[in-house]
From TrEMBL:
Belongs to the NifZ family. It comes from Rhodomicrobium udaipurense. The lineage of its organism: Bacteria, Pseudomonadati, Pseudomonadota, Alphaproteobacteria, Hyphomicrobiales. Keywords: Nitrogen fixation. InterPro entries: Nitrogenase_MoFe_mat_NifZ. It comes from the Bacteria. This is Nitrogen fixation protein NifZ. GO terms for biological process: nitrogen fixation.
C-alpha cells in the first residue's frame, strides 16, 4: 500500500488554470530529479531558482492540482511544476504575493 501525501486541501481543478500555454514563467525553487526524469541522475538539478521558461503543457495530478510543463530556456529541460512553484515573469502582483507559510 502506498501513502500519497497531499500537501494541500485546495482543489485547483475547480477553477481554470492559473498559467496558460506560452506564458513566460520563473521558478521559485530549485528542482532536482526525483528519479522520474529520464536521462538525468537522481538529485541532478533540472531547473534553478529564478530560471525562466515557457509553459508548453498543462496536465493534472491527483485530481487536485494542475501541473504545468515548463520548458526552461537555459537548460532546455522540460519540467512539470505546480502553481506554487512558479510565478509569471514581469507580473507585479506576483512579486508582492507572500510565500506559503509566511505572514504578509
Amino acid at each position: 500500500m502506498t501513502n500519497i501525501s497531499r500537501d494541500s486541501d485546495i482543489v485547483e481543478l475547480n477553477d481554470a488554470p492559473y498559467f496558460y500555454y506560452g506564458d513566460k514563467v520563473r521558478s521559485k525553487k530549485v528542482v532536482r530529479n526525483d528519479g522520474t526524469y529520464p536521462g538525468k541522475e537522481i538529485g541532478e538539478i533540472l531547473c534553478r531558482k529564478g530560471e525562466e521558461g515557457f509553459v508548453v503543457s498543462i496536465g493534472t495530478f491527483l485530481q487536485q492540482f494542475y501541473i504545468y510543463g515548463v520548458e526552461f530556456i537555459e537548460t532546455g529541460n522540460r519540467v512539470g511544476m505546480k502553481r506554487k512553484e512558479l510565478m509569471l515573469v514581469d507580473d507585479p502582483e506576483e512579486d508582492e504575493m507572500p510565500q506559503e507559510g509566511t505572514n504578509p
